[in-house]
Amino acid sequence: MEDRDNNSKKRTPEEATLVSENKRFRTELNVLKPPEPLIQLDLINQIKTKNEGYEFRFISKKWYVRWEAYCLGINSRPPPVNNSAIMNEKNKLKQGSEIEEDYLVIPLRAWNYLVLWHGLVNRSHELTFLKPNIAPPTKVKKLSSKPKFLVKKELLSDPIYHFNVYRVGQTTKRSQSFTISASCKAIEFQTSLLNTLDHSLGTQETFKLWLLNHENNHLLSRLRGSSSFVITTQFLNDKRFAIQIDTSSISDSSKLIDILPHSMNAKEFYLAVNLIKKKPPQEQAMPLSYKKTLGLIGLQNLGNTCYMNSALQCLSNTPQLTQWFTNNHYKQDLNTNNPLGLNGDLASAYAAILKDIWKENTNFTTASRSSISPREFKSTFERFNPHFVGFLQQDSQELLSFLLDGLHEDLNRVHDKPYIEIPDFDNQLSDLEIATRFWQYHTARNDSIIVDLFQGQYKSRLVCDECKKVSVTFDPFMYLSLPLAQQQDEKKREINIVYVPYLPSQKQLKTKVYLAQDATIEQLKQEVENNINLSSINYEYSLLVTEIVAERIYKVFDSTELVSSIQPTDHIYIYQLPCPSSSLDHPDWVIFPVYCSLQSSLRDDHTDKVSPIRQFGYPIVLAMKKGELQDGFDLYRVIVQHIERYCIVKLFEEDTLSPTIAPSKNALSVDLPQQPIHTTAAVTSAGGRPTTPVPNLFQIKVFECQTSSPGLFPQTSQATDWKKPAFQEDLVQQGQGVIIEWTLPKAQQAFGSSFSSIKTDAWHDFDETKTKNEITLQDCLDEFTSDERLTSEDSWYCPQCKKHQHASKKMDIWKLPEIMVVHLKRFSQFRRWGETKLNTFVDFPLTELDMTDKVLGPHEHRLVYDLYAVDNHYGGIGGGHYTAFAQNFLDKEWYEFNDTQVTRIESNEIKTNAAYLLFYKRRA
Fold first, then answer.
1. Is 798 noted as a catalytic residue in this protein?
2. 262: domain CATH number?
3. pLDDT band at 255 (very low <50, low <70, confident <90, very high)
4. Cβ of 810: how many Cβ atoms within 10 Å?
5. Is 354 a domain residue?
6. What percent of the chain clears pLDDT 70, i.e. is strictly above it?
7. Where in this chain does the record put each USP domain (predicted)?
8. pLDDT higher for 491 or 440?
9. Which long-range contacts (CB under 8 A, 24 or more apart) does 419-427 make?
10. 329 Cβ neighbours under 8 A, 6+ residues apart
11. Are residues 595 and 536 in the same domain?
12. Beta strand residue intervals within 213-359, DSSP E
């Protein structure tokens, strides 16, 4: 007892206070039982916000995040507090551990509560941190030039900054230094800095600050080791070495943690300081835009938070909502008892950041501020939705959706939500009566400024395929989520095809079709027939679907195969055939391919060695009735008719090919096997001309089917001179193919003297169906309201059949809100290829978007909307960058908001293929 008293007498006043505080905590905790999870979270957050006390504890972030999830009801109760992940064998902080990534620093009182409620795995894992700025002065003097506590910029707890200070333009034998808490006010930082320099700031004096780039090792070695190093102004203007800190935007109450650049992750910091004379007030030039317009304030990127900044800037320029918040009308609607909200904290945090953005400029200091930190808002929003905790890249549309939901719950005028069971109306009432009932049910539980401005109503109609049961519902929506018209919907995919008509007088066509993943090749054929309008053909035909690889038919698809076997990069050619079936084993028809090749100059006629086939161009597919090919001339004539469509000369006129034309030297060096035969100058018809083709254009060879062929057509690896078989009725049998072998001079005369017009694909030769890479917002709206088939993957539970059924579904817009947010579904999840982003350009109107004809519900006037903001996403999946375009509702000018940068833009710059969210407001 005597020893304890003696020890007590030796304690400093600060240590005695600490011991007393710990005793009080232990006494208090011993009588407490663990409160409800949400109360735990609220209490700990309050303690962290006050940030009081002298002693702090390190805690594993992994455990802390799990505990937060438990408090929010999305995870089970966590095990005892466990810091083993951040500790080494010596029970010290593990080297390489980073604050906010691996651990947090929390006040001692918060630590004691967590240990009391959940226990502690190992008492030796208690890591203590003492605040140097309120510790005994003697301890501060003992700090070395390097900090003992290494920190990052982005800290929710209270890091300590240690600064080495250099004057601009003066030599120094050693740096002067000071240590200060990041949570201190700017005035404290300024005072500490000036005290270190032994200088009092005059009324006509201010200072400039530069943060020296800690990544430049050569520079730092000079700073640390030189006794005569001079930091010049020229050096400080070089962004590679220094970052200037805008002191004009710093108010006395600003926190140091919000002043320094957010990219600062150095272990020690060097500040260059210059004391300068203030300019007379009349010389202080305020930017013209700030004199006239409020709201042009950027938002600092806290670390991958551009998704939040862009959404906030778009929402900030919503005049009705912003004025309602900045005029404090929101306070009368705060719902602090709604368990689905955040006790009004989210609404208050949003009001605070709006007031910062739209603060009236009364002097140069506030007028010249260019950006603010949204840190407090983000911290509050994270409490509402832990999914956004941390600094990972997130989706701007998801944040906007959760933000509007959270604001609605914080401002819900309904404090006691009634239970409402939605009846099945069974078509007993009109659509108007049903829609009115549904809206009344919704507003009986949901009534807020968000509902007033942002919520509309869908009409959904489902029809069961089996019992024809019709179900009609009217659901509220916060934004219109529109599929891109080319995309159709998330379960459909785009297939590029080339259609080859059988008649030589008709051109080939390229088109796109959109089919469900489980669609068959037969459905692909039907879609092609609809796209190209083949219903007008008055003769019997069939379609042969093939895959072309290296100018050869690699595969013939069976009608029952799924289109999911087609890869996005596959070359799909669909051949029209003049026979009732494209089956390659048809009893009455012979279907065979024809390939073009060049005679090899290396062929030795005195040996039996087979020469390689120098194939070029895409194949032709012919279909002949058995018995029609009686001799070689008939076969030759049919081939010439079909090959002429790709030639630059006529093949049915005598003497067209002059034997005196010699190939150019350049032509001989062309890699001909890689070149196809198609040209844009192709002749389309032989009708009306002499029926005798030019003789001896090529030699005909026949090749046999090989068992190693992956397709149903034969491969062209070997071919023999054609001779009429003695016991065969037809010259070409099913399972055989034809190669027409050209000499180089004749091929050049038929397809171009140097093959320069022959392309490796036939796309330049084709007519095009509608395949433009641009779509309109109207196209997207049309696609949204089109009929949709619900198959086995997304079947509907029919209340009449009492099971999931295939059904048809149609969505329509019944009611539109005053503020219409359009979400373009650029990010799509495909079962086979994963998530993709569509960069399709969508043409949307800036003014006078007339939605009258798209709304089924009653409306007294035309529904005309004007664009006022766009949320843009640049880049691809898992990354990229968000910016915002917004029209300031005061000066009516358009501006780009790129984090801290705010730039005026012209209206013709607004439409890009990065547009992701469109914000429209309805005209009065």
1. no
2. 3.10.20.90
3. low
4. 14
5. no
6. 63
7. 297-923
8. 440
9. 420/444, 420/445, 424/471, 424/799, 425/472, 427/470, 427/472
10. none
11. yes
12. 242-245, 269-277, 298-299
Neighbours of 1 (CB within 10 A): 5
The pTM for the full model equals 0.46
Structure tokens at 331: 């306070």
Q: Find, among 497, 500, 498, the residue nearest to 645 by Cα.
A: 500
Domain boundary among 108, 130, 152: 130
| 607 within some domain | yes
The CA distance from 298 to 374, in Å, is: 10
Model confidence pLDDT, tens digit, residues 451-509: 999 999 999 988 888 888 888 889 999 999 998 865 444 457 788 899 999 888 888 88
What does residue 163 show for φ and ψ, rounded to 5 degrees?
Answer: -115, 135
Residue 183 is given by DSSP the state T
Q: Determine the residue type at 712.
A: L
CB 462 within 8 A of CB 471: yes
Q: What is the mean pLDDT of the chain?
A: 73
Residue 742 placed within a domain: yes
Q: How many other CB atoms sit within 10 Å of the CB of residue 743?
A: 16
List the Cα angle 526/529/530 in 5-degree steps: 90
**Distance between CA atoms of 254 and 246, rounded to whole angstroms?**
13
Domain enclosing residue 89, as ranges: 32-130
* Residue after which a domain boundary falls, among 75, 97, 130: 130
User: Active-site residue among 71, 118, 306, 873?
Assistant: 306
Indicate whether 558 and 602 sit together in one domain: yes
Shared-domain flag, residues 274 and 221: yes
Domain at 109, CATH number:
3.30.2230.10
Same domain, 122 and 218: no
Q: How many domains does the chain have?
A: 3
Is 306 tagged catalytic? yes
Question: Which token pair is 140?
Answer: 């501060």
Instruction: Looking at the structure, tell me whether residues 672 and 736 fall in a common domain.
Output: yes
- Residues near 582 by beta carbon (within 8 Å), at least 6 away in sequence: 542, 543, 544, 575, 591
Whether 90 and 200 share a structural domain: no
Question: Is residue 913 assigned to a domain?
Answer: no
Burial class (CB within 10 angstroms; exposed 0-12, middle 13-18, buried 19+) of 200: exposed
182 CB burial (10 A radius; 0-12, 13-18, 19+): buried
What's the rounded mean pLDDT across residues 762-783?
63
Whether residues 102 and 245 share a domain: the answer is no
Q: Are residues 123 and 141 in the same domain?
A: no
